[in-house]
Amino acid sequence: MSLNFRFAIASDLHIGLPHTIPDHPLRFHRIEISIANFNYVIDQLSQLDIDFLLIPGDLTQNGERENHQWLAQALAKLPFPAYVIPGNHDAVERQATDRSIGIHDFPSYYQKHGYDRPEGSGPEVDSQLYYSCSPLPGLRLIGLNSIFYGEDDKQHYTGRIDQTQLRWLRKTLMEVDSTDQIFVMVHHNVLEHLPNQTKSKLGRRYMLENAPQLIEILQSAGVQFVFTGHLHVQDIAYDQQANLFDITTGSMVSYPHPYRICRYWEDGEGHGQLIVESQRVIAAPGWPDLQQMSRDFMGEHSLRFIRRLLTEPPLNMSEAEAEPLLPHLRHFWASIADGDAQFNFAHLPKPVQSFFEAFSAQETWDNNAVLDVSAKRRA
């Protein structure tokens, strides 16, 4: 079957009605413009002929009921289908609290956005946090849940896909028509988007801790495209052995406030392309030059993070050694978030130079890319 369709990606919306926004001086995200940015992007997408929208998690700031309700109502009014999955901010604890929904309440808010259930299905199916659907003939979309809780019902800081879900995924993939294209959406990163991300204390919290197990399942099914969020950066990672792309999209509430518009085509023989283009929100209430103002804001608020990179392994610098270097690295994380970063820190001490320059993009495809579709399908 030949395919030709367009879709959009908007991730980590962090929707927050004014009375739900936390008053925290070190808050990194600009939640106060979350609704304005969402409305701007929807207005732009509504002028395009797109077939559907993907939202890979962190729909709300901290799982507040009224924020989920607001977004569910907004999605119901869209002129195109939208598909969502939960992120770590969408249910802070396993059970509902006075400030957040419980994780198994999530599907009830988004029944028309991936979580459509057969009529008469029981409570166990109704609260299932993963799904398989067909946005278009010839396309299968699988939404996974990577939010994991410990025995104390507190959320684990890394992502994990439980064994029940993995068994369901194997079975579901076996039942998909062998000629269908398969897209997978999951909140936590499946592939590394930063150097040694799985080994870094700061980086691995954004990773799926059992990613190798998931990759093996996806590879055996010929899945090529995974769409993730959580990291708040624009990046495309590729695993050549698994022939798998992990396309992660930055957050709507932090620099560079991006969203993606993608076109997929296939010629019926299994050959085709996924063409990825990125756009940005350029203005918001109180932020007339959103891009520059937000970049400066991120530069100021990321200095604590840069200081940790300097003082923790492998650099292990003292606070006194690290402090004079901070102004030179002020825009480091903003450049990472922007995608396609290229660094030259020749003026810094050699170990520091080597460490930070290693974050330069190896391929300049984080924002705009033409990715070849393989003819390979499931055996």
Helix/strand order, N-terminal first: EHEHEHHEEHEHEEEEEHHHHHE
By secondary-structure content and strand pairing, the structural class works out as alpha/beta
Mean pLDDT: 94
CATH topology of the largest domain: Purple Acid Phosphatase, chain A, domain 2
Going by CATH, the architecture of the largest domain would be 4-Layer Sandwich
Q: Which homologous superfamily in CATH is the superfamily of the largest domain?
A: Metallo-dependent phosphatases
Mind explaining what this structure looks like?
Strands 3-2-1-10-11-12 form a six-stranded mixed beta sheet, with no helix packed on it. A six-stranded mixed beta sheet has the order 4-5-6-7-9-8, covered by helices on one side. It is α/β, with parallel strands linked by helices. The protein has helices spanning 34-46, 65-76, 106-109, 123-126, 163-175, 211-220, 290-301, 303-311, 319-322, 332-338, 350-357; strands at residues 3-9, 52-55, 82-84, 131-136, 139-143, 181-185, 225-228, 235-239, 244-248, 258-266, 272-280, 369-373. The protein has two domains: 3-283 and 364-373, Purple Acid Phosphatase, chain A, domain 2; 290-357, no CATH class. 25% of the residues lie in helices and 18% in strands. It has eleven helices and twelve strands.
